[in-house]
Design goal:
The chain has about 625 residues and is of the alpha/beta class. It is built from 20 helices and 25 strands. It has an eight-stranded antiparallel sheet with strand order 3-2-4-1-10-9-11-15, covered by helices on one side. A hairpin with a 5-residue loop joins strand 2 and strand 3. It binds 5-amino-5-deoxy-1-O-phosphono-D-mannitol.
Length: about 625
């Protein structure tokens, strides 16, 4: 997630910005930059791909000291990581400079009017458009800088936190926020802006939290905040009394919990911009996968590891439901040593959060050597897998810091729905009515996930009922079979409780032997074509005195009657139910691990990214 810092005051601006950016590193980034402005209007922009230390030398060697500046750590979404795509971005005249966190949905539309006026853009980012728009508005000479910002942000769709400086106005920073966090830090004859509290905690603990739709003028000795209609808003600073570590997690105990709660936004960001104007089609502006390519496909192989493998497994069910293409799901560590009969009309889909997993990368290379095209579903922009793929469908989960993958998983599933609808429509495999029904439901998913998260306390209570168990069984069918495996993986990796994820229909072929008094069985039993079958499985567990923890739809009295514990989730189309049902599984794993006193964000023996075999 991008990080923003801004400073105005009498101290060394470059140094303060670098320190602030280093405190934002935990958010994840691939490039960084700063702009500083001197009182006489001279300015310096230093921005580089890679780690923050790349900026240190140039910032210390610079000719000017500056009295105001803004800095940024970038986590690429639009445009790969590079010096030129790094922030700050300037307007056409090089007067306005800004840093941005968020995604501008209508940036293509907005850029068209600028292109007609002769504007040329240096970067591939959505953010640069905002700098040009502000410069354009301000250059008309009718309005103040903050009024120009207010006008521009009123025309923007999407999310933004913005820090803006102008070389002719070195006495101010303009800050604006909608959907992405931004705070103002209050100092003694100096003030700050930042994405979050840790960036400025060593300098001040007095902060103003900007709300959506607010624009602020931050000077060294004053802060004025306005709403989008230009009316002044009275803001009272609050005192922060958290530790730096607590602040980085935004008030959550662990990164994993924070990331679980970020899922509604992550899904929203992944579908944003990809659903056509009437909500009936999928468009990939960022991926040129043409209809003729969709039509000629005869087979799909999905390769991945760990959680990404289970996302791929669900992807198989999704693709086979929405298209006529047969799909094979393969563990990358096996695929790379197997003899798949790859042909030029096969497509290999590599799924990876990090884009760096060694086995997935090796599988991708093998597929390409055998004449196959590769599409990757990746979270980290510019990662090796994304660079070596023929097409990339990015998930916009933002950086995932907890070792246990959560928001990456739901966005990988989301990407599969989008791609399957796209293929299904292109090939004439599904009707547009069916496609738009799924898309409508997909748009409702973030709200439904939020509803589940509201019942976090009940899920915690449920975790307490079985956290002492030595082992647990997770069962599901059809679309929710991979979810059962994912639920079991989650609890295994962070709580060290042994768990098995099984297709419920396989129970009688072995695992039912495990069930004895109070043995926990987590049953995914939401409405769909295998619902009755799942009810029978629950009865089988109950008959052997197992402890049934069921994930069921709101108000399901049948399940409530037979299960010991029920975690309710909103109803959804069966095809989309994995997106909801996995959320309680993540929270169950999280709270079992809490009860067992485990180091949740850094489980033993595990690394976030497995870049060796
Ligand atoms: O970065 P990737 O998605 O390629 O990583 C794949 C697995 O290593 C990863 O999903 C792992 O299983 C997670 N720790 C699961 O929570």
């Amino acid at each position: 997630m991008c990080g923003i810092i801004g400073y105005i005051g009498g101290n060394d601006v470059g140094d303060i910005l670098l320190k602030g950016l280093s405190r934002l590193e935990y958010r994840g980034y691939d490039s960084a930059g700063i702009v500083l402005i001197e009182e006489d209007g001279r300015f310096d922009v230093i921005k580089k791909e890679g780690r923050l230390y790349n900026l240190v030398g140039p910032v210390h060697d610079r000719a000017i000291k500056g009295c105001v500046g803004v800095g940024h750590t970038r986590w690429a979404t639009h445009g790969r990581p590079s010096d030129v795509n790094s922030h700050p971005h300037g307007d056409a005249s090089g007067s306005v400079w800004l840093v941005h966190n968020g995604i501008i949905e209508n940036y293509r539309e907005l850029s068209q009017s600028l292109v007609k006026k002769g504007h040329r853009f240096l970067s591939e980012t959505d953010s640069e458009i905002i700098a040009h728009l502000i410069g354009d508005e301000f250059s008309k000479g009718e309005v103040s800088l903050h009024e120009a910002v207010r006008r521009v942000v009123s025309s923007v769709r999407g999310s933004y936190a913005l820090g803006i400086v102008h070389r002719d106005f070195p006495d101010r920073i303009i800050a604006a926020r909608h959907g992405s966090p931004l705070i103002i830090g209050i100092g003694e004859n100096e003030n700050y802006i930042a994405s979050d509290v840790p960036a400025i905690m060593d300098r001040t603990r007095k902060v103003i939290y900007l709300e959506d739709g607010e624009v602020a003028i931050v000077k060294k000795d004053s802060v004025k905040v306005f709403d989008l209609n230009g009316n002044p808003v009275n803001k009272v600073p609050c005192e922060v009394n958290w530790s730096i570590e607590e602040a980085e997690k935004g008030g959550y105990e662990k990164f994993m919990l924070k990331e679980i709660f970020e899922q509604p936004k992550a899904v929203e960001n992944t579908i944003i911009d990809r659903i056509g104007p009437k909500g009936k089609t999928v468009t990939f502006d960022d991926m040129e996968f043409y209809p003729q390519q969709a039509r000629k496909l005869r087979r799909i192989y999905i390769v991945s590891c760990g959680t990404a493998f289970y996302a791929g497994y669900t992807g198989k069910y999704i693709l086979e439901r929405l298209t006529s293409i047969p799909v094979e799901i393969e563990l990358a560590s096996e695929f790379r040593y197997s003899d798949p009969k790859l042909q030029s009309d096969s497509l290999v889909i590599a799924v990876s959060q990090s884009g760096e997993t060694a086995d997935t990368l090796a599988s991708l290379r093998m597929a390409r050597e055998n004449g196959c095209k590769v599409l990757s579903i990746v979270n980290v922009v510019g990662s090796t897998i994304s660079r070596e793929s023929d097409w990339v469908l990015y998930t916009y989960a933002g950086p995932e810091i907890g070792v246990a993958s959560t928001k990456a998983y739901v966005t990988q599933l989301t990407a599969f729905y989008l791609f399957a609808i796209y293929l299904g429509e292109m090939r004439g495999d599904i009707s547009s009515g069916f496609a738009s029904g799924i898309l409508d439901e997909l748009k409702n998913i973030p709200g439904k996930i939020s509803k589940i998260l509201e019942h976090e306390a009940d899920i915690r209570k449920c975790a307490k009922s079985f956290y002492k168990a030595e082992s647990a069984l997770y069962i599901g069918r059809n679309f929710n079979y991979p979810n059962a495996m994912e639920g079991a993986l989650k609890i295994k990796e962070i709580s060290y409780m042994h768990a098995e994820g099984y297709a419920a229909g396989e129970m009688k072929h072995g695992p039912i032997a495990l069930i004895e008094d109070n043995y926990p069985v987590i049953c995914i039993c939401t409405k769909g074509k295998t619902y009755e079958k799942m009810i029978s499985n629950i009865r089988e567990v109950e008959a052997r005195n197992g402890q049934v923890i069921a994930i069921a739809n709101n108000g399901d009295s049948i399940v409530r009657e037979i299960a010991h514990n029920v975690i309710e989730v909103p109803e959804a189309m069966e095809e989309l139910s994995p997106l909801l049902n996995v959320v309680p599984l993540q929270l169950l794993a999280y709270y079992v691990a809490c009860e067992r006193g485990c180091d949740i964000d850094k489980p033993r023996n595990l690394a976030k990214s497995v870049t060796v075999e």
